[in-house]
Write a structure and sequence with these properties.
- The complex is a heterodimer.
- By secondary structure, chain A is an alpha/beta fold.
- Chain A contains 26 helices and 13 strands.
- In chain A, the strands form five sheets. Chain A has a five-stranded mixed beta sheet. In chain A, strands 4-5 form a two-stranded antiparallel sheet. A two-stranded parallel sheet of chain A has the order 6-8.
- In chain A, helix 12 links the parallel strand 2 and strand 3.
- In chain A, helix 9 packs across helix 11.
- The two termini of chain A are 30 Å apart.
- The relative contact order of chain A is 0.09.
- Chain B folds into two domains: 232 residues, TIM Barrel (Alpha-Beta Barrel), CATH 3.20.20.70; 56 residues, Alpha-Beta Plaits (2-Layer Sandwich), CATH 3.30.70.
- Classes of the chains: A alpha/beta, B alpha/beta.
- At the A-B interface, helix 20, helix 23, helix 24, strand 13 and helix 26 of A face strand 1, helix 4, helix 10 and helix 11 of B.
Chain lengths: 698, 301
C-alpha cells in the first residue's frame, strides 16, 4: 500500500474533522471520521465473488477532483497526526468476534456506560472513549449492512440461476456477521474479512489475519461433519478470500500457520493445508503466510513449503517456534499467549488479539557510524548527526575504535527513543483509535484506548540495519591497521572518504582477503555477537509511554534506501550501494555455503530480537530441484530453526539475477550453482557455462 | 610404520547434497592415479599444491609480478603471464593477489584440523542423516589419512563415506573398511581398452575390488558418469551392464550427467582440456537415453 493510496482516506477524515472541529474530544472526532469514511467510500460487489467488501482507491477520485478543499482536508488530518512511525500491523481478536460477534463487545460497552458514574471526573475520559467505541461499532455495523443490501439489490436486478442464489446467501451473511457470532465456515471467513477491512480503514497500514488456521478449524470441522460444506467448496471460498487480500497492493497481509497449541502439541489442521494450497494455487503476493516450525511439525508443512519455495515463489516464510516463544516469555508474555504469536506483517512479532505495535520505530543506519566517527559527530554534509568520539590518531588500539562505534550506536538509540516517544505521545493525544480498541483485548475492559495502553501487550520495535557491514569493516581495520600495520586508520578512512578511488587494490584486498561475517569463522562472528548484544542492551534501556523498547533486525527494503544515504564503508562497500539485506552476511560475502551462513547467525541469541531477526538465503534453483534436494534443504532449515533460528526467508535465484551476477561478479561471489549434481561458484565458471545455466534457469 | 595423519586438501565443501545420503561435508584430497579425459576436477590430479590463475579476474594491479622472486609472473604490457617452468611454488603471489585471480590449490591439513572443520555442520548431519564424504583425487591413495580421519569421526558418531574409482590395491581399501559406512564407487566403463586408454584404469582391479566389497556386505552406491562419445553408446552401456550382472550382493546405483565444470579450471591450470566441448543438450540427451536403458533392465536410476 502506498501512502498516496491513503491520502484519499485522510482527506475524507479531514473533512469530518473540520465539521466536528473544536467542539468535540479527539475520541469523538476519530469515531466520527471513521464513520464518515465508512459511509462515503463506494461499496461494490464483483461478479463471481463470494467473500465481499472492497476498499476503493479514493485517490482516483482525488485525481479527478483535485481541488483546494481536498488538499486542505487532507492537510488537517495528515499534517500533525500522521507524522512518523508506523502502527497498524496487529491482528484483532478474531476468535472473540467469531464467537461473540461484535455485538458482544457492544453489549459490554453499553453496560459500562450504564454503570460508570458520569459525575466522577476520573470517568469522564473513559466515558468519552466508550461512547466513541460504541459509535464506531454502530457505524461499522451499518457498513456491513450496506453490503447486505447491495447483494440483495444485485439479486433482485437481473441476477439469475446460481449467482442469484449466491447473492442471496451473501445478503444473508452480511446482514449477520460480524455483528452476530459466525455460524459456518463461510460466515466466519466473511466476518474475518469485514473486521480486517474495518481495521485497515481505521488504521491504514497492513495487518495480520492472525492464526487463521486455528480459529477457523472448528468452523470447517463442524460444517464438514454436518455436510454443510465440501472440501472443494471450502477451497473455493478460501481462494476467494485469499485473492481478495490483493485488492490493496504492496505490503504483506500476513497469516501465521502451524506452531504449537498451549498444551505444547504441534498444530496442523485442515484449514492449514487449505490456506497453503489456496495461496499456492492463486500465486499472488498476498496473503503472506508464515509457518511456525516446531520439533514435531507435520511433514506436510515441510513438503508443501519446499514445493512452494522451490518453484520460485517467495512464500511461505519459516519461523522458529521455540526461539520466538522463548523470546516472548523473556519479555513477560504469558505461555498461553506466547504460543499464539504472529508475524505482524513481515517479521515483527506480536500477540494476536492482544497486542498493539509500533513497527520500524525507527530503522537505524548502523554503517553510518564510521561517517560520524570520521567527521567527529557530523555527517559528511556537516550536519550534526552523531557524537564527537575524538580524533582518529587517539584510537591507538582496535578496542578503542570498537568502543567509539558503540558510543555512536548508543547515541543513535537514545536519539531515536527521544523522537519516538514524542511521536507516540502525540498519537496518544491526537489520534485515538476507538474502533481498533473494540477488536483488541483488553481496551474495553480497561476503558482505555489502544493508543493509550489499552492492549494487553505493547511492542515498539527499533530496527538495526547493516550490522554485517560494520562487523566486516571493523575486522578489516583490525587486520590491516592494528595487526599487520599495512595502513593506518586515517589511511583507510581517507580511502573510504574518496569512495576507494585510487584505492582499488586496498578495496579488493578487503573484499577478498579479510574474514567476513557469515562464514562460520570465530573472529567476525564473535564481534557480530558483541555488537548484537550491545544493541539489544541499549534498546531495552529505554521505555516508551506504553512499554519497553524491544530490539529488532528487520531490514525490509532499507538496505537500498540506507545504502543510498551512506558513504563508502571500510568493509569495501562503495558509496550509495546497498548495505546488508538481512541479519546474515553482506551480499556476496558468504563463501562457505548456506550452513555456514546459518551457523554464523546462530552465534547470536536470536530470542532477544522479538522485533525481528531475518535471515535471507538466496539459493540457486538447483538446490531445490528434486525431491531429494528439497528434503535435504528442508532438513537444513529445520536444524537451524530448532537450534535457535528465528526466521529464514528463502529466495530462489532467477535467470535475471544470474545475468546480473555474470555482469557484476564481485557482488555475487557467494552464488553457488549446481550442474548435474556438482556444485561450483557461479562467478568462477567459464562464460559459456554461465550462459547455459542462465538458460536453464529461464 | 608411521601413520599418515595429514594430506593435501584442496577443498572442504559444506552442504554437499549429491555426495551420499543427507547433508554432507565433502573433503577433497589432492592426487589421483587416473587421468580421465572428462575430469571436472583437474586440479585434483597432482598430489602437491598447485597454482591456479584465473585470467578473467585479473585487474592487472601487478602485485603478483612485484612479489614473485623467480620470474614466474611477467607483465607483457597487456596481460600477466604465468610461466610455470620458473615457478618454485612458494605461493607468495596468491597471498598478495587481491582479487583471487591467483589461488593456491591445496594445503596440508592434519586429521584433527579437518575434523574440527567438518564437525561444524554436525547438527545438519544429525537432522538429515548425513555425514562426511572424502573425495578426491583418489582418496584411497591416502588410506592411512582417510582411515585415521574416519576413525575420529566414528568416535563422534558421524557417518563416513568415501568416493573412489576403486583402482587401488585391495590392501588400501582394507585399511579404511572398519571405519567406512558407505562407498561411492565409480563404474566408468565396461570396455577394458577404452578404460585403460581414456582414464588409465585397470578394469580387472576395479571390478575385483568391487566384488570383494559387495561380498563383504558393505553399503555401496555405484556411480556411472555418462560421457558422450565415451560410454554412452548402446554397446558401451551393454558392457557396463555385463559388469553389473556379474556383481554379488546389494547395491544402489546412480547415473551422473556430464557437466562442463572443468573448462575454466583447465584454463586456470594452464593445461589444454583433453576433451572436446560437449553441449549441454548432448549431455542431457545421452543421460536420458542411458537412464532409459538401465531402467528397462530393471535398475532403479
Amino acid at each position: 500500500m502506498t501512502n498516496d493510496f491513503f491520502q484519499g482516506f485522510d482527506a475524507l477524515k479531514g473533512q469530518s474533522y473540520k465539521e466536528t472541529f473544536s467542539s468535540d474530544s479527539f475520541y469523538h472526532k476519530n469515531a466520527a471520521a471513521f464513520a464518515t469514511l465508512l459511509k462515503k467510500i463506494e461499496k461494490k460487489i464483483f461478479p463471481e465473488e463470494l467473500i465481499v467488501g472492497w476498499i476503493p482507491d479514493v485517490d482516483e477520485k482525488r485525481d479527478r477532483e483535485m481541488d483546494e478543499e481536498y488538499r486542505k482536508n487532507y492537510a488537517i488530518y495528515a499534517s500533525e497526526i500522521k507524522k512518523g512511525g508506523i502502527t497498524g500491523h496487529f491482528a484483532p481478536n478474531y476468535t472473540r468476534i467469531l464467537r461473540d460477534g461484535l455485538k458482544g463487545t457492544y453489549t459490554e460497552v453499553e453496560k459500562k456506560l450504564r454503570e460508570l458514574d458520569p459525575s466522577v471526573p476520573e470517568n469522564t475520559e473513559k466515558i468519552e472513549f466508550l461512547e466513541a467505541a460504541r459509535d464506531s461499532m454502530l457505524a461499522f455495523r451499518e457498513f456491513c449492512r450496506e453490503y447486505s443490501l447491495l447483494a440483495g439489490e444485485l439479486s433482485e436486478n437481473g441476477a439469475a440461476g446460481n449467482r442469484k442464489k449466491e447473492l442471496d446467501e451473501i445478503a444473508r451473511i452480511c446482514a449477520k456477521v460480524p455483528w452476530e457470532p459466525a455460524g459456518s465456515f463461510h460466515e466466519a471467513l466473511q466476518s474475518v474479512f469485514f473486521i480486517y477491512l474495518g481495521l485497515l480503514l481505521d488504521i491504514p497500514a497492513p495487518a495480520s489475519f492472525g492464526r487463521l488456521d486455528r480459529y477457523l478449524e472448528p468452523f470447517l470441522e463442524s460444517d464438514l461433519s454436518a455436510g454443510r460444506v465440501s472440501m472443494e467448496r471450502a477451497m473455493y471460498l478460501m481462494r476467494n478470500f485469499c485473492a481478495k487480500t490483493n485488492e490493496w497492493l504492496l505490503s504483506p497481509h500476513s497469516i501465521m500457520l502451524g506452531g504449537t497449541t498451549p498444551d505444547g502439541l504441534p498444530f496442523c489442521g485442515k484449514v492449514t493445508s487449505l490456506i497453503l494450497e489456496a495461496v499456492d494455487a492463486n500465486r499472488l503476493i498476498n496473503p503472506a503466510p508464515g509457518i511456525a516450525i516446531c520439533k514435531d511439525s507435520e511433514e506436510y508443512l515441510w513438503t508443501k513449503s519446499m514445493e512452494m519455495i522451490s518453484s520460485g515463489f517467495g512464500h511461505p516464510a519459516l519461523f522458529g517456534n521455540e526461539t520466538i516463544i522463548k523470546g516472548l516469555l523473556g519479555i513477560g508474555v504469558s505461555p498461553g499467549d506466547a504460543c499464539e504469536f504472529v508475524h505482524s506483517t513481515c517479521t515483527e512479532i506480536t500477540i494476536p488479539g492482544k497486542g498493539y505495535i509500533w513497527v520500524t520505530s525507527a530503522y537505524i543506519n548502523f554503517p553510518r557510524v564510521f561517517e560520524y566517527i570520521w567527521y567527529r559527530g557530523r555527517d559528511r554534509h556537516g550536519k550534526p548527526a552523531g557524537i564527537d568520539t575524538g580524533r582518529l590518531e587517539d584510537f591507538n588500539t582496535w578496542e578503542k575504535l570498537v568502543g567509539a562505534v558503540k558510543k555512536q550506536l548508543a547515541y543513535q538509540v537514545r536519539q531515536n527513543a527521544i523522537t519516538q516517544n514524542r511521536l507516540i505521545w502525540r498519537r496518544m493525544i491526537f489520534d485515538p483509535k476507538p474502533f481498533s480498541s473494540c477488536i483488541v483485548d483488553d481496551c474495553i475492559q480497561r476503558e482505555t484506548d489502544i493508543t493509550k495502553g489499552g492492549a494487553v501487550y505493547n511492542f515498539v520495535y527499533p530496527q538495526l540495519v547493516g550490522m554485517a557491514n560494520v562487523v566486516d569493516g571493523l575486522i578489516s581495520i583490525k587486520n590491516l591497521v592494528y595487526e599487520k600495520g599495512e595502513i593506518d586508520l586515517e589511511g583507510i578512512m581517507k580511502a573510504v572518504e574518496n569512495n576507494f578511488e585510487g584505492y582499488e587494490i586496498l578495496r579488493q584486498k578487503i573484499l577478498n582477503k579479510m574474514p567476513h561475517y557469515g562464514n562460520d569463522t570465530p573472529e567476525p562472528d564473535s564481534l557480530a555477537s558483541e555488537l548484537y548484544d550491545f544493541f539489544c542492551g541499549e534498546v531495552t534501556k529505554y521505555r516508551t509511554p506504553l512499554s519497553m523498547y524491544y530490539p529488532g533486525f528487520l531490514v525490509w527494503m532499507y538496505h537500498l534506501r540506507f545504502g543510498k544515504e551512506c558513504m563508502a564503508t571500510p568493509d569495501g562497500r562503495l558509496d550509495g550501494t546497498p548495505v546488508a539485506d538481512s541479519l546474515a552476511a553482506m551480499q556476496g560475502r558468504a563463501k562457505k555455503g548456506p550452513t555456514a551462513i546459518l551457523n554464523s547467525v546462530l552465534n547470536l541469541d536470536l530470542s532477544k530480537a522479538v522485533g525481528a531477526a531475518v535471515v535471507n538465503l538466496h539459493v540457486p534453483s538447483s538446490f531445490l530441484s528434486g525431491e531429494s534436494e528439497r528434503k535435504k534443504f528442508s532438513d537444513m532449515i529445520k536444524s537451524h530453526l530448532l537450534g535457535g533460528g528465528f526466521q529464514v526467508q528463502v529466495t530462489v535465484v532467477s535467470a535475471s539475477e544470474l545475468r546480473k551476477a555474470q555482469k557484476n561478479p564481485e557482488r555475487y561471489r557467494d552464488l553457488m550453482v549446481r550442474v548435474g549434481g556438482y556444485c561450483e561458484y557461479f562467478t568462477r565458471l567459464a562464460p559459456e557455462l554461465q550462459d547455459t545455466i542462465i538458460e536453464r534457469a529461464e | 610404520m608411521t601413520v599418515e595423519r595429514s594430506a593435501i586438501i584442496f577443498e572442504i565443501q559444506r552442504f554437499s547434497i549429491h555426495d551420499g545420503p543427507g547433508i554432507r561435508t565433502t573433503v577433497f584430497l589432492k592426487g589421483c592415479n587416473l587421468r580421465c579425459k572428462w575430469c571436472h576436477n583437474p586440479e585434483s590430479s597432482h598430489p602437491y599444491p598447485e597454482l591456479m590463475f584465473y585470467a578473467s579476474k585479473c585487474i592487472k594491479c601487478l602485485s603478483c609480478v612485484n612479489e614473485c622472486r623467480h620470474g614466474a609472473l611477467i607483465f607483457d604490457g597487456k596481460k600477466i603471464k604465468y610461466l610455470p617452468e620458473n615457478c618454485r611454488k612458494c605461493f607468495r603471489c596468491a597471498g598478495v593477489c587481491p582479487v583471487e585471480a591467483i589461488v593456491r590449490c591445496g594445503r596440508e591439513m592434519d586429521t584433527a584440523e579437518v575434523c574440527r572443520e567438518v564437525l561444524k555442520d554436525r547438527n545438519y548431519y544429525e537432522t538429515s542423516g548425513g555425514g562426511v564424504t572424502v573425495s578426491g583425487g583418489e582418496p584411497l591413495l591416502h588410506p592411512e589419512f582417510t582411515a585415521s580421519l574416519f576413525s575420529l569421526l566414528k568416535k563422534e558418531g558421524i557417518s563416513t563415506c568415501v568416493e573412489t574409482a576403486g583402482c587401488v590395491p585391495w590392501k588400501n581399501i582394507k585399511k579404511i573398511l572398519p571405519f567406512t559406512d558407505i562407498f561411492l564407487y565409480d563404474i566408468k566403463s565396461g570396455n577394458r581398452e577404452k578404460l585403460a586408454g581414456s582414464a588409465g584404469a585397470d578394469m580387472s582391479l576395479v571390478t575385483e575390488n568391487l566384488k570383494n566389497l559387495l561380498a563383504g556386505g558393505v553399503k555401496i552406491f555405484l556411480r556411472i558418469p555418462l560421457i558422450p562419445g565415451f560410454n554412452t553408446e548402446r554397446r558401451e552401456l551393454k558392457k557396463i551392464l555385463d559388469i553389473l550382472k556379474g556383481l554379488p550382493g546389494q547395491f544402489e546405483m546412480e547415473l551422473l550427467k556430464y557437466n562442463g565444470l572443468g573448462t575454466a579450471k583447465y584454463e586456470a591450470l594452464n593445461i589444454p582440456s583433453p576433451l572436446r566441448k560437449i553441449p549441454a543438450t548432448e549431455a542431457d540427451k545421452s543421460y536420458e537415453a542411458a537412464r532409459e536403458f538401465f531402467r528397462d533392465e530393471g535398475y532403479n536410476v
